[in-house]
Amino acid sequence: MASLDRVKVLVLGDSGVGKSSLVHLLCQNQVLGNPSWTVGCSVDVRVHDYKEGTPEEKTYYIELWDVGGSVGSASSVKSTRAVFYNSVNGIILVHDLTNKKSSQNLYRWSMEALNRDLVLTGVLVTNGDYDREQFADNQMPLLIIGTKLDQIHETKRHEVLTRTAFLAEDFNAEEINLDCTNPRYLAAGSSNAVKISRFFDKVIEKRYFLREGNQIPGFPDRKRFGGTLKSLHYD
């Protein structure tokens, strides 16, 4: 196969929300049998057809960088994570629908990635509120994904999804809620699959086609990260 252009998408969220399972499902179209904690960063690749079915169709690599750790980590850990935030073209923010704190922490994750030099304080999340001005000038394509939908009883789903719906509005992003142990949530032609495709198209457009966008250099040399990256698949 000829060399393909590529974009880099961060996958951020608290430990245990299901980022690794989500990435595996997106890239391999299979359920991850034995998920484990991500140490450092794990990278997998999805082949995506930009503007599929149109004369502009072109195939790209979507590199999904699953960043491990906790948003409340010590500054030394955050400094180590900062290396993964270079040359980013898009961000998927992942939260556990059964864990309200993981939803609130998405603001801190996004600010850590978008503004690495910013000292995070309670101004972002205080009693469930946050300062929307922090994201007023953000041009980074974002997608919100809620996991573990299967663990919410049907009688509680409306309440939970109503509570988390504000995330999409706050981040000016589309929202997907799913169960990473069931591939049907991302089945071809489904509304979730359409949202995923639309997000990746937006990331590619921002990287390669919008003149006012940042023309970011290519993917950094993997050697920079030593043994930190657990995997990089181009299957």
TrEMBL record:
Q: Which UniProt keywords apply?
A: GTP-binding, Nucleotide-binding
Q: Where are the transmembrane segments?
A: none
Q: Name one GO molecular function term.
A: GTP binding
Query: Which residues, if any, are the signal sequence?
Result: none
Q: Which Pfam families match?
A: Roc
What this protein is reported to do is described as: Required for KRAS signaling regulation and modulation of cell proliferation. Regulator of KRAS prenylation, and probably prenylation of other small GTPases. Required for lymphocyte development and function. Not required for myeloid cell development.
Q: Subunit details for this protein? A: Homodimer. Interacts with GPR89; the interaction stabilizes GPR89. Interacts with RAP1GDS1.
Family, according to the entry, reads as follows: Belongs to the small GTPase superfamily. Rab family.
This one is known as Rab-like protein 3
Q: What is the lineage of its organism?
A: Eukaryota, Metazoa, Chordata, Craniata, Vertebrata
